[in-house]
Write a structure and sequence with these properties.
Layout (H helix, E strand, L loop, with lengths): L1 E2 L4 E2 L3 E2 L1 H9 L10 E6 L5 E2 L1 H16 L3 E5 L3 H19 L13 H29 L10 H11 L4 H24 L7 H39 L2 H7 L4 H38 L4 H11 L2 H27 L5 H32 L3
Parallel strand pairs: 1-4, 2-4, 3-5, 4-6
Helix pairs in contact: 2-3, 4-9, 5-9, 6-7, 6-9, 7-9, 7-10, 7-11, 7-12, 9-11, 11-12
């Protein structure tokens, strides 16, 4: 029996691209009668379905041709794939018409139960990801924290968003002032427009509008960027090199989003107040009167409470975007789905958190 002079050494990341390289190197040239091949899987740290299918097919074809193939030092992950393929072939041999049978549709109870179990499992995965992010936060004070990446993410999600946030804030203050002036004029209380828009913008609307814009702009950007990296197998490469994606990719983006939203909310609130002052000027009130109204109705504690919520909202939006990006599939459609899910989930969580903060602040008398 012929013996292969050197064993076939599999690469550390046995994925589709690695299989393509092995095929180009002529891996199946050993499929011939009487050959003895040794496949060394010592270096394999990660394999996907394509890599396991390559090993299984090569081993099977060599056996069919009358040769002998020995797989040594295979990881448990690779062996699970190979055992699954063997079981599938045995099942197909016992019932050749099994693949031709129409699948049995699920009944309502089974479908509902499966959906509930999937939601519970997804919730557990989300909590696990959140815990990993929280445990990684102390690393921002270490020298291993990627400050350059955090600064770049801050520029993209913070600095570059200032124009659109300021414009939306100005229009919001303008609209709110005009709409509130109409009913207040019926009671001769149009002078309180300044105080009304001050409370609304500082406490709620300035922050909420900014957070929603950030969910649509930043969360989608993070999800699409990380999802594309997963499609290109860049995240797999990081894991192969021993780098954790949460610390290497997620943490800088979460820090940038957490710091960006409080600053953006200040810009939106200030722009909204300028829009409200513009309406007050049209109504014949002076700047000093508008400022007195703000000082009478809005306190420094209102601003502090709003900024505390902004920190939580920014952390939530950035974390949601990164989480959906890392859990995206490996095709373009999956990246689009992850981006949409990140935006929708972020907005829903913002509404839930706003409700919780309202209850807490009401209990505190704020």
């Amino acid at each position: 029996m012929d013996c292969q002079p050197n064993p076939l050494i599999l690469p550390p990341c046995l994925d589709q691209s690695a299989v393509l390289e092995l095929l180009q190197e002529g891996a199946f040239s050993w499929v011939k009668p009487g050959v003895q091949v040794v496949i060394d899987a010592t270096a394999v740290r990660h394999c996907d379905g394509a890599g396991a299918a390559f090993v299984w097919t090569l081993r099977d074809q060599i056996g069919v041709a009358g040769g002998r193939c020995e797989l040594i030092h295979a990881s448990p992950e690779l062996m699970r794939y190979l055992d699954a393929y063997d079981s599938a072939r045995e099942a197909a041999a016992k019932d050749p018409e099994a693949n031709l049978k129409a699948p049995v549709p699920e009944d309502l109870i089974t479908a509902v139960g499966r959906s509930v179990c999937e939601r519970i499992a997804g919730f557990g995965d989300a909590l696990t990801f959140l815990g990993e992010v929280m445990l990684s936060l102390p690393l921002i004070f270490s020298r291993h924290f990627r400050r350059a990446d955090a600064l770049l993410a801050f520029v993209r999600c913070g600095v570059q968003a200032v124009p659109v946030v300021s414009l939306i804030g100005f229009l919001l203050g303008l609209i709110l002032a005009f709409q509130s002036a109409i009913p207040l004029q019926m009671f001769g209380a149009e002078g309180f427009v300044g105080g009304l828009i001050g409370i609304a913008l500082v406490r709620e609307l300035g922050l909420i509008i900014t957070a929603i814009l950030m969910a649509g702009r930043t969360a989608s950007s993070f999800a699409a960027e990380l999802g594309t990296m997963k499609v290109n197998e860049e995240i797999d490469a990081l894991e192969t090199m021993g780098l954790k994606p949460v610390r290497f990719l997620v943490l800088p983006r979460v820090v940038a989003g957490t710091l960006a939203l409080p600053i953006l909310s200040l810009f939106a609130t200030a722009s909204g107040l300028i829009g409200g002052w513009f309406v007050m000027h049209i109504l014949g009130f002076s700047v000093s009167y508008f400022v007195d109204q703000l000082q009478s109705f809005v306190s420094f504690g209102d601003l502090i409470g709003s900024e505390c919520k902004a920190i939580v909202f920014g952390f939530t939006v950035a974390t949601v975007g990164c989480r959906f990006g890392l859990t995206a599939g490996r095709d373009a459609g999956a990246v689009g789905t992850a981006t949409t899910s990140a935006v929708v989930t972020g907005i829903v969580l913002l509404a839930v958190l706003e409700g919780l903060f309202s209850v807490i602040f009401y209990a505190m008398g704020w």
